[in-house]
Amino acid sequence: MNRFSLPGIEFEVRLKTVRFFIRLGEKIFRQRQRMYLSFAERGVHVIIVKITMNALIEKRTEVMQTILSMIEPTENERGCLSSHGFLDIEDKNGFSLIAKWATREDLAHYIRSDRFSVLLGTRSLLCEPPQIEIHTVSRSEGMETVNASRRETT
């Protein structure tokens, strides 16, 4: 993993994406993590939204600034569990924004918001309309599943 920085932006390379880090305080991070685990333990669905954009070459910086400016305010929206921006390192003009929502109602409220309208307003900066995927996840697993699967094969 390599760390890079630009004025005001810090990121690190992981496989095919560069994740922009917006630093939340440890307390806020732990609260969100506990809330997310609590939803998972109760069997509550989590909504994951992925928005993929391919910026015009000359508008790349504007798209990146728009995404960066949206991450923290989106995380402060009612029901938002997390929001992250990604840059495709194989295609410097490719960006993704991924957010997790507690309920479909919270997501619908956000989609009707002015903030989401700003995101849709980036269409003129893109090669093609943004691709939007909405996934409802009823179960999430982590390292314990990887470890269990690896034990089964040995």
Can you describe this structure?
With 154 residues, the protein is of the alpha+beta class. It has one domain (2-153): Alpha-Beta Plaits. The protein has helices spanning 26-41, 60-75, 104-111, 114-120, 143-153, and strands spanning 2-6, 9-14, 17-20, 46-54, 80-88, 94-101, 131-137. β5 (80-88) and β6 form a beta hairpin.
Structure at a glance:
The chain has 154 residues and is of the alpha+beta class.
Give the CA-CA distance, first to last residue.
29 Å
The percent of residues in helical segments reads: 25-40%
| Overall structural domain count | 1
Number of strands: 7
SS strand fraction: 25-35%
Largest sheet: 7 strands, antiparallel
On the 0-100 scale, what is the average pLDDT? 78
CATH top level?
A: Alpha Beta
| CATH-defined architecture | 2-Layer Sandwich
Low-confidence stretches: 9-29
Order of helices and strands: EEEHEHEEHHEH
**Assembly state of the chains shown:** single chain
Number of helices: 5
Structural class: alpha+beta
From the spread of the alpha carbons, the general shape counts as globular
CATH topology: Alpha-Beta Plaits
Radius of gyration from the CA trace? 17 Å
Strand neighbour order, sheet with most strands: 1-2-3-5-6-4-7
